[in-house]
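Tip: read the tokens left to right.
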């Protein structure tokens, strides 16, 4: 009799335990599913946030470059024309008064000042937006800059470009130009280097720029938080690329830039 009651109890309890077990497993699975969904939502939100920030950064840089180009053209076309005409008038006055020993030195002084202003205007216009970058491309523009820098005898800049280097769209072209000019400026100011090498190559729709010098490198062997570094990193991020830099084991500084090529 007692054995029968025990079996009845077990038969009653077993479905109940099974039901509770199934419910518990269901709750655990629902909880895991909820956590996974929450994690996916957070990842999606972070991705959207990163994309939004990248688009904002890209737009800011485009606006900046457009304004630089406009100012450079205004300076070159308008101010440059006025200064050139002024110089022509001064030269004519020099011819008219070449026998006037009191007036001629003053006119020559005005002409020299005007020519200095023209040279400064051209330098500022070029720094704002190098006109040859749009016409001749990134490599030719950097080679022209290197030729001028090498004439000083203080530094030797070598530009190496793979023969099969693809044609670059304007945002990548101006981005790589600005970054390399910032790197060169840093080397000239702080590195006490004698040589700079900039090498461009492309593979699998990625353009790679490898910059290096033989200077003293980053003094603390750490990552600088300077505005120049942030500016370069921001430009690369806006183009969806990667930017790394540091000290070489053999001495000197290096920076590596990888940017996906937009067809």
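Filled-in amino acids:
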């Amino acid at each position: 009799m007692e054995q029968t009651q025990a079996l009845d109890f077990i038969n009653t309890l077993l479905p109940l335990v099974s039901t509770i077990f199934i419910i518990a497993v269901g709750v655990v699975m629902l909880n895991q599913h909820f956590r996974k969904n929450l994690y996916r939502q957070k990842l999606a939100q972070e991705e959207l946030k990163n994309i939004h920030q990248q688009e904002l950064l890209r737009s800011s840089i485009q606006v900046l470059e457009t304004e630089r180009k406009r100012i450079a053209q205004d300076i070159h076309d308008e101010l440059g024309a006025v200064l050139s005409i002024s110089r022509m008038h001064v030269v004519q006055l020099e011819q008219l008064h070449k026998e006037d020993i009191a007036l001629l030195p003053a006119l020559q002084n005005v002409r020299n000042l005007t020519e200095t202003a023209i040279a400064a205007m051209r330098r500022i216009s070029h720094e704002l937006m190098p006109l040859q970058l749009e016409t001749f491309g990134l490599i030719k523009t950097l080679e022209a800059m290197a030729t001028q820098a090498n004439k000083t005898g203080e530094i030797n800049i070598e530009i190496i470009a793979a023969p099969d280097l693809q044609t670059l769209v304007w945002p990548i072209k101006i981005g790589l130009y600005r970054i390399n000019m910032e790197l060169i400026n840093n080397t000239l100011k702080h590195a006490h280097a004698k040589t700079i090498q900039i090498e461009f190559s492309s593979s699998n729709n990625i353009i790679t720029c490898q910059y290096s010098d033989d200077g003293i490198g980053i003094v603390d062997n750490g990552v600088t938080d300077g505005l120049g570094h942030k500016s370069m990193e921001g430009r690369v991020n806006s183009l969806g690329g990667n930017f790394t830099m540091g000290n070489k084991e053999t001495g000197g500084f290096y920076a590596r830039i990888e940017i996906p090529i937009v067809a």
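The first strand starts at residue 156 and ends at 161. Helices lie at 2-96, 104-128, 131-136, 138-150, 170-191, 227-238.
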